[in-house]
Amino acid sequence: MNVDNVLNEIQDLNLTYLLLAQRLLQEDYATALFRLKIDEPMAEVLLSLSARQLSRLARTNQFLFRLGLDDAGQLQALTNHKREQGLEQTHAALLMTATGDAVAARQG
């Protein structure tokens, strides 16, 4: 895979992420804040961006989002342990919440 293809894919993912973020915020603001792990000022900026601004923002060579897991142990816990059917999403949500709480504690 050449560098141009990788950059195009990053830009496509960025635009997809930004459009999804806007849609989530419009449909269920509080849940979107939690799922996107962003604060209200960031949400308001995202909601205010036009399609042209989103497109311009997406055209960077860096991802605009990051993996919500902060350590390999959490990723392993989500992928390697069998859970009762129907509890996988609950388990993932609990791990992701714990990650957000730990990050907030370190920043605070």
TrEMBL record:
It comes from Alloalcanivorax balearicus MACL04. Its main location: cytoplasm. Homodimer; disulfide-linked. Forms a heterohexamer composed of two FlhC and four FlhD subunits. Each FlhC binds a FlhD dimer, forming a heterotrimer, and a hexamer assembles by dimerization of two heterotrimers. Functions in complex with FlhC as a master transcriptional regulator that regulates transcription of several flagellar and non-flagellar operons by binding to their promoter region. Activates expression of class 2 flagellar genes, including fliA, which is a flagellum-specific sigma factor that turns on the class 3 genes. Also regulates genes whose products function in a variety of physiological pathways. Keywords: Activator, Bacterial flagellum biogenesis, Cell projection, Cilium, Cytoplasm, Disulfide bond, DNA-binding, Flagellum, Transcription, Transcription regulation. The C-terminal region contains a putative helix-turn-helix (HTH) motif, suggesting that this region may bind DNA. Belongs to the FlhD family. This is Flagellar transcriptional regulator FlhD. It comes from the Bacteria. The keyword Disulfide bond applies. It is found in: Cytoplasm. The keyword Transcription regulation applies.
